[in-house]
Structure formats: structure tokens, C-alpha cells
């Protein structure tokens, strides 16, 4: 079996798009998740080139560099934790990453900062703020519920972090109708 790593997979639609690319390229797989596909066979060079070309058309990229693969794994774990988990993780992010990637957290942290130019913690905060923006725009929950669902200790903590990142309070963001959400894979600043 052959595991391939794909950059920029950030949501269920991305998984569906990659499934379609695999189908169109006659590539069978046994498992697919954000950033990873396990194929039933090793790719030949022509298959790899065709897959890369098809993925590039959709904004994805095959990753062959091991450091880039680790970075993508870190991002996908964070995205899954923040955007696709209803109850905040009880463990520290450092524990979750260490358990899932089987590497020392200080190594992962240093590598992430070196390659991405941002700390893992800052990336996590940016993802959380984007989720809060989404929840504010939908308007189905009050600020206390949003704070709880995103693992903030209080509304004050959420508001403080939100203002630090966006320059606006959550209330001002919601009432002005500002829709400044970023793509999930582009949250490095």
C-alpha cells in the first residue's frame, strides 16, 4: 500500500473532490482523510504525474517532502479539532499532536515555526477565530455558547483574543456584518 499526502485538504468537500480525482485517474484507495490517502498500490511515475496535474487543477498539491507532510498533518489535526469537533478536546494540543504523529512536540513546534513562519499556537488561535466568525455570522448561538463550543474559559477570554486577532469585538463584527472569513488553509498570518 502507498500513503500519499495532499496539501490544502481542509474540509469534507476537499475529500469528495480528491475522491473524484482518484476515480478519474483510475486509482483505487482504501482510506482517505484530510491530507492523506492510502492507495491500494504504489504509484508509477506516469500515475504520480497525472495525479499531481489533476490535483493542481483543484488547488491541491502532492507532498513528497517529509517535513511538508508533517506540517500538513499538524494543520489537519488542528483543523479537525477546531472545525469538526463539537466538544473541545480535553487534552492539550501538544499531547494530541504527539499522540497522533508520534514525534516530540518540541520538534513539531520548531519545524512548524521554521517552515510556516508562525507558531502552532498562533495557527490554532487563527483557526479558532475563523470558527467563531462563522458561528457569529450564522447567529444561531449566543457568545457564551460560542465560547464554550470553542474551548474558551470565558466570554471575556474569547472577546479579548477575537479583538487581538481581528481588531474588532465579536459584537462589533456581528453587527457591522463584516464577513472577513479567510480560507482555512490560508491562515498563516
Could you name the key traits of this structure?
189 residues; alpha+beta; Alpha-Beta Plaits; Arc Repressor Mutant, subunit A; 3 domains; four-stranded antiparallel beta sheet; 4 strands; 58% helix
Provide the fold topology.
Elements (H helix, E strand, L loop, with lengths): L1 E6 L4 H13 L4 E5 L2 E4 L5 H13 L3 E3 L2 H18 L9 H9 L3 H12 L3 H19 L4 H7 L5 H12 L3 H7 L13
Antiparallel strand pairs: 1-3, 1-4, 2-3
Helix pairs in contact: 3-4, 3-5, 3-6, 6-8
Sum this structure up briefly.
This protein has 189 residues and is of the alpha+beta class. Helices cover 58% and strands 10% of the residues.
Overall description:
Helix 3 packs across helix 4 (93-101) and helix 3 (66-83) runs parallel beside helix 6 (120-138). The protein starts with a strand and ends in a 13-residue tail after the last helix. It has 3 domains: 2-64, Alpha-Beta Plaits; 67-119; 122-186, Arc Repressor Mutant, subunit A (Orthogonal Bundle). The model has no long low-confidence stretch (mean pLDDT 89). The protein has 189 residues and is α+β, with helices and mostly antiparallel strands. It is globular and about 55 Å long. Strands 2-3-1-4 form a 4-stranded antiparallel β-sheet, sandwiched between helices. A hairpin with a 2-residue loop joins strand 2 and strand 3. It is 58% helix and 10% strand.
Amino acid at each position: 500500500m502507498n500513503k500519499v499526502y495532499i496539501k490544502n485538504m481542509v474540509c469534507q468537500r476537499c475529500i469528495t473532490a480528491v475522491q473524484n480525482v482518484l476515480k478519474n485517474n483510475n486509482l483505487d484507495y482504501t482510506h482517505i482523510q484530510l491530507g492523506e490517502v492510502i492507495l491500494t498500490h504504489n504509484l508509477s511515475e506516469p500515475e504520480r504525474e497525472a495525479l499531481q496535474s489533476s490535483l493542481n487543477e483543484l488547488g491541491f498539491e502532492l507532498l513528497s517532502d517529509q517535513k511538508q507532510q508533517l506540517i500538513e498533518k499538524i494543520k489537519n489535526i488542528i483543523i479537525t479539532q477546531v472545525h469538526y469537533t463539537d466538544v473541545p478536546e480535553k487534552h492539550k494540543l501538544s499531547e494530541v499532536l504527539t499522540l497522533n504523529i508520534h514525534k516530540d512536540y518540541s520538534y513539531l513546534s520548531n519545524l512548524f515555526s521554521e517552515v510556516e513562519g508562525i507558531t502552532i499556537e498562533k495557527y490554532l488561535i487563527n483557526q479558532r477565530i475563523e470558527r467563531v466568525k462563522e458561528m457569529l455570522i450564522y447567529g444561531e448561538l449566543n457568545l457564551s455558547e460560542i465560547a464554550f463550543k470553542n474551548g474558551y474559559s470565558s466570554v471575556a477570554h474569547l472577546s479579548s483574543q477575537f479583538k487581538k486577532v481581528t481588531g474588532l469585538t465579536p459584537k462589533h463584527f456581528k453587527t457591522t456584518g463584516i464577513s472577513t472569513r479567510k480560507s482555512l488553509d490560508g491562515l498563516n498570518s
